[in-house]
Amino acid sequence: MFRAISFRSKSRANLTKIDSQSYDNSFELGFQVGGFAYYDFSDFIGIQAEVLFNQTNTKVTDEFSDVFGDAFDKDKTLNYISVPLLLRLNSGGLITINAGPQFSFLADGNETVLANGKKLFKDTDFSAVAGLELNLHPVIISARYVWGFSDISDVGEEANSHQIQLGVGLRLF
After folding, report:
1. Angle 97-18-102 (CA atoms, 0-180°, nearest 5)?
2. Range 6-20 average pLDDT
3. Can you give the pLDDT at residue 114?
4. Per-residue three-class SS string for the chain
């Protein structure tokens, strides 16, 4: 049976935290918008590629600002272009399971006075993604967790990101 590639748009709310002593350990609200295409090999398995603008927010702790003084604001906004490549299981059913790697490129790091001399964050992030989609054609409701494997901090100790994503997608054709 021939299966066509499907295209969709999506938007999500992100709840992000960065694991490190230098960053506040609570989840901060951000957003994600973009599109994706998928190809189902059968009613059970397929692949999905996405291109997303991903805004994440975090706060530095008092320990971090003690080192650098008041050279920058505690609130940090990181804008990434994220590219997940996901395996789709049960792709023809009501619930689809997605999992795979994600590579993200830092578009800007909310430049500050300190960042003019040295960036606080590295330019890339490698993560693993796992989640579920509820398929209510043409609408899709989704929930994911993203585990960051890369050290994203360019200053001080290692820092890894974690994200909870909740969103809605729309099948375009």
Report:
1. 35
2. 80
3. 42
4. CCCCCEEEEEEEEEEEEEECCCECCCCEEEEEEEEEEEEECCCCEEEEEEEEEEEEEEEECHHHHHHHCCCCCCEEEEEEEEEEEEEEECCCCCEEEEEEEEEEEEEECCCCHHHHHCCCECCEEEEEEEEEEEEECCEEEEEEEEEECCCCECCCCCCEEEEEEEEEEEECC
Distance of CA 1 to the CA centre of its chain: 34
CATH class of 6-171: mainly beta
Own/partner pairs, 110-113, CB within 8 angstroms, 24+ separation: 110/76, 110/77, 110/78, 110/79, 112/71, 112/72, 112/73, 113/71, 113/72
pLDDT tens-digit profile of 85-109?
999 998 778 999 999 999 988 886 5
How does strand 75-89 pair with strand 95-108?
antiparallel
Q: What is the pTM of this model?
A: 0.76
